[in-house]
Amino acid sequence: MALDMIALEYGYKNWMHYIKEIKQVQIRLKQNLPKRPASPTPDEIAIHDVIYGRVLGQRPNRNMSTRRHKKIGKILAELLEETTYHKRAHKILFQIRVDLDSWLGEEYGPSVMGNAEFNSIYYGSHTEFVDDIPSARRQAQLRTLLRQAKKILLSAYHDCKSLEKLLGQFDNALDKLESWPKSIRVKGAPKRQLRSGTFVQLKQTKELLLVFNHDMRSDVVVGFNDAGTFEAGRHEVSVLRSQPNLSKYRPLRLYLPYGKCTLDDGTEVLFNRDYCPLWSRSLSGTVKEVDLLSDLDFNGAEHFFFERDAPYTKNGNVNHEKCLEILREWGVADRQHKILDHFQEAVRRGRVGDIMPKPFS
Predict the structure, then answer these.
(1) Which domain holds residue 284?
(2) What mean pLDDT comes out for the span 260-279?
(3) Which domain of life is it from (predicted)?
(4) Does one domain contain both 264 and 243?
């Protein structure tokens, strides 16, 4: 009873609460763990499918800074490179990257972070060549890097189930990094590398895709289609025998209007799904192409569709026609916007991140 009174004087519920808190502090000091942020209410929010709008899972109700995302992204890129042939570790690290990339997309929407910056954080290009089994010293360095990434997460997010699940993946990856195979049989590289500008289709859905890059070591194909950037294993796609005319390829995400905003002088501006300005119409009815580098305020903008019924989804036929009708009304349905020329140039360079000239805000 006396001990409970003492604990109450120092702001604790009772003596047992005091003992529990002290033990947690001792554990944190011993493991050099960072101080954790306070938990908001609710502590988690839903993650939505960017195409169909359905709920895919939960994430912490807090935004980690882009600086920290970039640090973790750089660490994961190095770990994924080094575990190219350690499949069990690589698979877990790959899923960690997928999850954090999803969180990043939810935390910083397209009005805050453009495609170029977003794609570079967790899916930037890397060209380092690695050994099938790193040296013992290098293996220790990789484990240290993974612990550093985990520590950043602990300092950025509060306790919640979604973070706990992600940290469990970090622990599983660390376990795999502590037990490298004694020998790894490395299979030969694919016989033929897909060149940028090659049209392929997903074997499962027959969806048309345009290749930007084919990594020969990981055998992963990166490219673009009507819905945006994609990534698939080479075994998941097949090359079209009859290749479409690349110069006439117009991805719906780029040239169809996603919404309309109005400037202070009454001028209306159409913008695409990545918030890239397309066309402007003055009060007198004059329509002209908008500079891709124009900085617009999208607050209060009108949007023409949701992700679940976007023109490039299976439920988007009505909105596809709606967007085409808007272009016809503006008299630009048959005009080629510079964003499509920019797209063609990005294909020639083989860099999907160059489609957008800069992050739009």
Answers:
(1) 252-354
(2) 93
(3) Bacteria
(4) no
